[in-house]
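Quick one from the shared queue. A colleague (R.T.) flagged Class I SAM-dependent methyltransferase as missing a structural entry in our internal table.

Convert sequence to structure tokens.
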Amino acid sequence: MTSGFDELIETGESADVSGWDFSWLDGRATEERPPWGYAGLLARRLTSATASLDIQTGGGEFLAEAASFPPVAVATESWPPNIARATRLLHPRGVAVVADPDEPPLPFGDEAFDLVTSRHPATIWWEEIARVLRHGGTYFAQHVGPASVFELIEFFLGPQPEARRGRHPDDESAAAETAGMEIVDLRTATLRIEIHDVAAVVYLLRKVIWWVPGFTVERYRDRLRDLHELIQSSGPFIAHSTRHLIEARRP
């Protein structure tokens, strides 16, 4: 068991975690998809927009799936490896990638876009979204919901009762309305995750760095070994992600 553990740890540590593509996890972890099909819904909205902005685009992999883009199409990203990856993917499609620290203000003028989108943004600045939207423009996004993957997070950090309320769709809707937006659509989903080995855990915690802040294999090796032994004896580690689809309009 020890040699298997060490090999899995090395595999997870050596994996490339740049970009926002999780295909490396194929065969190691699975996650249910939300029922609404955000990719298809987003693609349809892009066809009718005249100027679009995708916030925190990651490596651009998801946005690049769209068949077409409006005459003006921009994406922002803060992490340098992702900026480079998104540039390679999106510039040939006519989408400009702008380096942005994910803090106000957005580097665009007032009422610059009729469509602002985001998939799993780490931060949401509603006042800035409202500012860069034209009147009648739409924010259309899929957000991570409250207590998402907390079974895994709390395995490493212990109970996090205060953090469980974060990202609640009711709170986000209220914040959007405070910024002057109208909520048009709000849907929620809870989705099953199965993690089949500890290499997947190392990969995820290196990639999604806010789950277990300051994660390193050295720091959490004992807990990783506990999780490895749990998977070996009981089968896949089960967690649940939460997602919500939110559409808000600037009146």
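The longest strand covers residues 182-195.
The longest helix spans residues 217-234.
Added to the table.
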